[in-house]
Amino acid sequence: MKRESEFLADATVRQQAAAQALGCAPHFADTLRDGSPAPTVAVIPPGSFWMGARQGEYQVQPVEMPRHEVHFPRAFALTTGAIRRREYNQFLMATGHRRPRAYSWHDLDFPIYNVSFHDAVAYADWLSRETGQRYRLPTESEWEYAARAGTDTMFYFGDKIRREEVNCAGGLHCTRGLFLCGIGRPVPVGSLPPNAWGLHEVHGNMQELTLDHWRSGYRLNARVGDQPFQSPDKHDRRFRVVRGGSWFDGPGACRSASRAQRFEHEFDLNLSFRLLRELPA
């Protein structure tokens, strides 16, 4: 059985190989029309993984099962963190889009908050027009594959967490000897250690929106991961899957396999998003 360090080394080698094949750096940024950089993205290499939770995971939920194989025949890129307030503000100034409800967190490097699914889609569409590239929200399969970065544990660094690794609202169950985990607010994007593909804060800090409609579990068959689930149920189509947990959630909600639902017009202080940048075949 591979050690954690071997999984991480394999993931990094695969990322570098995918970037080299595409003729780009493993991490790069497109350019906006005014010459400023777009959010930095990390190349996520093609591959396969087992999506969903193992039976024995802490606070495992039926909606996270059954585990099933998901394939990614082509690489994609994902922003290295949630979209920052400073990045979203460029979009607001350029378009006059509805501004998020104000709150006392003014740090421009905080993840954007008080935005809905529709706000995230509008930002992605604007970024696509600005760069000439295709940006969108990830599917939940793409999100989990990228968050795991080749690992199969509850978190990309193992099965236990501590304050230095995850910003959540936990206690003894999420610590290695610490009594309280979490600070009651988000931390600036890029504050916590990245996974092997360079993605920050995939566990905790902010819940992150995905393209998928809500469903209360998976089918067992293998599938391709870039196809979002489109619910045939009119009620479920009002809800989108969110991933990653947040500063407000307990440690169980921050696992790689954990998933929850948010109303697509809902906004909140612990709800944000990161974007996928499509790459050429």
Helix segment count? Answer: 4
Would you identify the regions where 5 or more consecutive residues have pLDDT less than 50?
A: 175-180
User: What structural class do helix, strand and pairing data support?
Assistant: alpha+beta
Shape, principal axes of CA atoms: globular
- Percent strand equals 15-25%
Q: Would you list the SSEs in sequence order as H and E?
A: HEEEEEHHEHEEEEEE
Report how far the terminal alpha carbons are from each other. 33 Å
The order of strands across the largest sheet is 1-2-5-12-6
Oligomer type: single chain
Proportion in helices = 10-25%
Largest sheet: 5 strands, antiparallel
Mean of pLDDT = 91
